UniProtKB/TrEMBL annotation:
Listed name of the protein: ATP-dependent DNA helicase
Domain of life: Eukaryota
InterPro entries: P-loop_NTPase
Amino acid sequence: MLICERTSQLEPSNTTDEHNWAEAARSYPDIDNAPHFIAQGRQNTRYTPFTTSATPDNLQSRQLVVYTTVRQYFESTSQEPLHIIINSTAGTCKSYLINCLRLLLHGSVRVAAPTEVSTFIIEGRTLHSLLHFSMRGDFKEMKGSNLQKMQDELSSTKIPYH
């Protein structure tokens, strides 16, 4: 989708405050598809299984503590929930740690993030997509086939990450 062709389009012009934005938008025929851009991209993309070159051998000390904690929890019979928050700036290998944990836990984990950009980096899903929350209107109780679909998708999940 092309929003503007040149920076000069953003420069002040001799127009009045009564600029006709609707007329300007007509010069971009794909503008009506903008709200559906991501959904269309997902439909046109073939599913590829998760693959990574990440290995726990390359984790740094603090990452290894998290990895070991999760591994021990996963191998135990504990019924207590495990709560871990991994918070850091960009470029600190959070996605590398997530990939190591995905390998460790195989199909028992679902990876989700709050934004499309972050899901792209970790090959996950948005939180609202994973939990089948509608982004339009008020939150409504999930029932019927939608509830069953979500339960089926999450049935093998032992530890959700976000």
